[in-house]
Amino acid sequence: MTTNVTLADDWTGWIDDRWRGFPTGYAPLPIAQIAGRGWRPQDGQMALPLLSLDLTTFDLNIEAVMRYLATEGALIAPHAKTPMSVAIARRLEEAGAWGATVADARQASVMLEGGLSRLILANQVGGRGGASRLAALLWHHPLAEVHVFVDSVEGVDALAAAWQAESTRGKGMPPLGLIIELGGGRAGVRDDQSALDLMERILALPPDSGLRLSGVAGYEGAVVVADAKESRDRVDALMLRMAALHAAMRDRVGPAAPLILTAGGSLWFDRVLANLGPAAAADGRTRLILRSGALFFSDHGVYKRGLAAMEARGIGLAGRIAPALRLWAEVLSTPEPGLIICGLGMRDAASDQGVPMPLRIWRDGQELGAGDHLLIEKFNDQHAFVRVTGDGPAPAIGDVIEFGLSHPCTNIDRHQLIWGLDEQQRVICVLPTSFG
Length: 436
Hints:
Blueprint: H1 2-5, E1 14-15, E2 29-30, E3 50-54, H2 55-72, E4 75-76, H3 86-94, E5 100-102, H4 105-113, E6 118-121, H5 128-139, E7 145-150, H6 153-167, E8 176-181, H7 192-203, E9 211-217, H8 228-253, E10 259-263, H9 269-283, E11 286-290, H10 302-312, E12 325-336, E13 339-342, E14 357-363, E15 366-370, E16 374-379, E17 384-388, E18 400-404, H11 408-412, E19 417-421, E20 427-432
Parallel strand pairs: 3-19, 4-11, 5-6, 6-7, 7-8, 8-9, 9-10, 10-11
Antiparallel strand pairs: 1-2, 3-12, 12-13, 12-18, 13-17, 14-15, 14-18, 16-17, 19-20
Helix pairs in contact: 5-6, 7-8, 8-9
């Protein structure tokens, strides 16, 4: 696990008890000196609540995903919005990721300043203001390879004007790849003729504009509905639209130009591969790049259910992905029979895709038993109302409850630090996040 221990070694800051998780009253420490102190979330020494990452499970998830994609002939640029951690993005790149995906120019800045050089900005930048900000950022990173989604002539024209303006500052701008996004339910070109017209507008840009047509994108998660069969049909239809636009694009740019086909969240990437994999393989000059980010972390809620559905569709990878994130909180009060108040609230955990699930109860650092007879009924800002729903160990004041979570993206963003744990659940590194 050497790679895990050194995940955050390049971040030279100090932390103290103003940071969630750091033991209250403990002397400040450089982040690189956290390992080896024997801290464990369940021992009562660390300030709770905190968010942890099981590094062994995380590494096994990475290995499983990368091996699976290699057999499928696909690449991945994991969406950095999930952890917003440069250390994690670099770990994924070292393991074989093509690069990283970001959602806006600020996230791009975090990753570029952290040493990553290949990004997909999987979003529209807006108009003149957004285009100018992106151009100003990339002026400082002339060697970066960046591709951005476009779905309108207005967006293309704004980017062209911004690149032209920045190029007059006396230093070359990096070329910017424009990926036409086809959509439904969110952003993206809605009809195929408009997509072809947009393609022609990009191809008509002057050769020295710094902008080039680089591929086709979609996000299948925006078209799914409650019904599984209808969702599959909608996802397949979007992928077929992407394949058709890619074929038209190949006809226009010629056989030698490199292109990108990119889609794939963490719940329907099997349909992305099934529909777009053959087109990319037959083309020979097209990279099929998934953008799944939460997949590497999984969870005990929405992604656990989604991966189970994928496994039922015959995707063996789904059964090899395990939840790697945990929340830890202390029992503060047992004010009435059957009710437990924990120090875990809306400031610490998300509930948009389900509340955290009690997994285990710890007392004085030792496991007391499973927590499947416990259920969070509601949240306040700093409190979780946990109801006892069946037989099992009775948590007492001062016990620590280990929670699984649902939806990594909206849970991690409440935390400035992710505490990395080894197989004995000892802290061996700290991963700073950059959510702004």
